[in-house]
Structures are given as structure tokens and as C-alpha cells.
């Protein structure tokens, strides 16, 4: 049914648990996985005339977030390896995580987006998380929203 599943992560404990469920789902479907971390774009400081020397350059910022993305998606890659599921990971940059998730899913020909009902913004929300809600409203491919029944311990 599904051949390629995009699993998103923001690095939070909730997201890691959701990703584990996504990998199990991919294994059951016989699908491959694309693990995606969306990082915010570099922001130049607008409050000063001269960029402070301690402020990272755009290249340093991007390199640091690519490393962070690799760390955040590594648990998905490892889970896929344990379950013999083919997996590729990537980090993308955008100010709108939701729109980037939809765009990457379309560009990489994913059949399904698997994501949590809440991410880093957490359990305090009564409704779906804002990123999840935006993905649901913009995606033309199916989105499976996984909801954890209990909050994970960090």
C-alpha cells in the first residue's frame, strides 16, 4: 500500500517515540523511510548595526543545524536498521516547518507522512499541534497522525 513514508522529527522525546511507531508501521507496510528534520533558516541580527564577533556565520549556523538534524534523525535510522527497513535521512531549512514537510514529501514521492499530534510545543495544547495542523491542511498525500497515550520521560 505505502512504498515510501516520510517520518518527521523535531528532536523532542515525543517526536522520538512517534518516530519509533512510524518505523514499526513502515516495517509492517514493507515501505522505506525518509527521516526529516526541518531547521529554521539563519536569521541576521536586526537589532545591531554590526554583527557581533560571537554571532555565528551563516555557514557555521547551517553546519551546526545539519549536525543537529543528523543527531535527531539518527534514532530513526538506527530503528530502521534494527528492523531491516531502508532509510534515508535529511535536514531541510525553512521558516515554515509544515510547508517544508509537505514540499519534501511531494518532491521525494512519498506516499504517506507519519507525524505526531504534538512535537516540541508539547502537551499543553488541547488541539493538534500547529505544525501538524498545517501539514494536514496543506498536504495532498495522506497524513497519519500518531498520538501518544502518555507523556514520555525525557
Automatic annotation (TrEMBL):
Matches recorded under Gene3D superfamilies: HUPs
Domain UspA: 1-145
Domain of life of the native organism: Bacteria
Similarity comment text for this entry: Belongs to the universal stress protein A family.
Protein name: Universal stress protein
Species the sequence originates in: Pseudoduganella plicata
